[in-house]
């Protein structure tokens, strides 16, 4: 029983930590057009730009306030 309670507590903490300032989960995708300067095919939210698995040859131009690429 203690193990289940501990696991549930961990899940709650992870969900709370992963909430962004807008209240959206970090894994949820915003439309690229909503973030000014988001590179094509990348996923952008807040100050994070994700361009994973795109087989890029170079680092794309990203918005100035980007903190995570």
How would you summarize this macromolecular structure in one to three sentences?
Helix content is 23%, strand content 9%.
Please give a handful of descriptors for the protein shown.
69 residues; 2 strands; alpha+beta; two-stranded antiparallel sheet
Model description:
With 69 residues, the protein is of the alpha+beta class. Strands 1-2 form a two-stranded antiparallel sheet. The protein is elongated and about 50 Å long. The chain has one domain. It has one helix and two strands, in the order H-E-E. Helix content is 23%, strand content 9%. A hairpin with a 2-residue loop joins strand 1 and strand 2 (48-50). The longest helix has 16 residues, at 2-17.
Q: Spell out the helices and strands N to C.
A: HEE
SS-based class: alpha+beta
Instruction: Quote the distance from N terminus to C terminus.
Output: 40 Å
Total count of helical runs of at least 4 residues: 1
Order of strands across the main sheet: 1-2
Q: Tell me, briefly, the overall form.
A: elongated
Strand content: 5-15%
What does the radius of gyration come to?
16 Å
**What is the typical, i.e. mean, pLDDT?**
75
Biggest pleated-sheet summary:
2 strands, antiparallel
Which regions have little confidence, pLDDT < 50, spanning 5+ residues?
none
Q: What's the count of strands?
A: 2
């Amino acid at each position: 029983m203690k193990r289940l309670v501990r696991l549930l507590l961990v899940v709650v903490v992870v969900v709370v930590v992963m909430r962004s300032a807008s209240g959206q989960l970090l894994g949820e995708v915003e439309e690229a057009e909503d973030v000014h300067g988001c590179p094509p095919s990348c996923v952008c939210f807040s100050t994070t730009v994700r361009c994973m698995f795109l087989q890029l040859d170079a680092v794309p131009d990203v918005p100035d306030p980007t903190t995570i690429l």
